[in-house]
Design a protein that fits this description.
This protein has about 270 residues and is of the alpha/beta class. It has helices at about 25-40, 40-45, 65-75, 85-90, 95-110, 120, 130-145, 185-195, 210-215, 220-240, 250-260, 265-274, and strands at about 5, 55, 80-85, 110-115, 155-160, 175-180. α1 packs across α2, α5 (about 95-110) runs parallel beside α7 and α10 (about 220-240) packs across α11. The protein is elongated, with a radius of gyration of 21 Å. Bound molecules: adenosine-5'-triphosphate.
Length: about 270
């Protein structure tokens, strides 16, 4: 089964406090998604159509999935996450049926959010794909979205690193008609992300998260999460090696060593391209 989960699975519950930076972006998503899910009556009374789909686009590891999960938790909506490539490969020949099932499940459990990660894999430009399967799956997704009544009780959030590859029909009104860019964080955002990922860590006073934020230009949220984890591992190794007794603490030096090991993913991609 794909990563289906309701709010009952605490493990994956995400709140806005778990998202660093992205205040404006989160605000926009909340306005577009939360209100229709929680107060459909307002839209009805005003005669405004709530959005059926929104698209989050930008580089990988910047928090698109986090935002979708946080919005679902906060609006107490049923959450179904699917992954584009997975639905195309794993269910080869059954992708359309699987999509129909997902929409059914969402409707049955509404208010609901369907999150489609790597949407470009499910809905590439039909003019450019050779395979019949892709064309049929795009058409199926379009018809399922058109079939969602404009009640706003099921909203599809799509995520893509390459929105230019998406079939243009998907970006028309009534489909994914709102697009929000989720970019690589700036210094302030990086500091917030570092605070989040060191929340449970015992840091020595010489660890200055602001300074680390200043030297991690180009690091995404995912890179920073990895950096903190790496620093934690270094601390653990030190602790084990020295057979220390007291508390295990993470020091400035652990972070310095972690910084040497974890490079920003933007840089990693560049190296691959060269
Ligand atoms: P992809 O396009 O690869 O699916 P994504 O944009 O959906 O990437 P996420 O899955 O949300 O990225 O992020 C991966 C992990 O990186 C998160 O689980 C979290 O630990 C960390 N992370 C990313 N962005 C942030 C952020 N803004 N604040 C805090 N943590 C973040």
């Amino acid at each position: 089964i794909l990563v289906d989960q309701t709010l009952d699975s605490k493990k994956d519950r995400v709140s806005y406090e778990d998202i660093g930076g992205l205040k404006e972006e989160v605000k926009k998503v909340r306005e577009l998604v939360e209100l229709p899910l929680t107060r459909p009556d307002l839209f009805r009374k005003l005669g405004i159509e709530p959005p059926k789909g929104i698209l989050l686009y930008g580089p990988p590891g910047t928090g698109k999935t986090l935002i979708a999960r946080a919005v679902a938790s906060d609006s107490r909506a049923y959450f179904i996450a699917i992954n584009g490539p997975e639905i195309m490969n794993k269910y080869y020949g059954e992708s359309e049926a699987r999509l129909r099932e997902i929409f059914e499940e969402a409707k049955k459990n509404s208010p609901a959010i369907i999150f489609i990660d790597e949407l470009d894999a499910v809905a590439p430009k039909r003019s450019e794909v050779v395979g019949d399967v892709e064309k049929r799956v795009v058409a199926q997704l379009l018809s399922l979205m058109d079939g969602l009544k404009s009640r706003g009780d099921v909203i599809v959030i799509g995520a893509s690193n390459m929105p230019e590859l998406l079939d243009p029909a998907l970006r028309r009104p009534g489909r994914f008609d709102r697009e929000i860019f989720i970019g690589v964080p700036g210094t302030q955002g990086r500091e917030e992300i570092l605070k989040i990922h060191t929340r449970g860590m015992n840091l020595t006073p010489d660890v200055n998260l602001r300074k680390i934020a200043e030297v991690t230009h180009g690091y995404t949220g995912a890179d920073l999460a990895q950096l903190c984890k790496e620093a934690g591992i270094r601390a653990l190794e030190r602790y084990m090696d020295c057979r220390e007794t007291g508390d295990v603490t993470v020091t400035k030096e652990d972070f310095e060593r972690a910084l040497k090991a974890i490079e920003p993913s933007a840089l990693r991609e560049m190296i691959v391209e060269i």
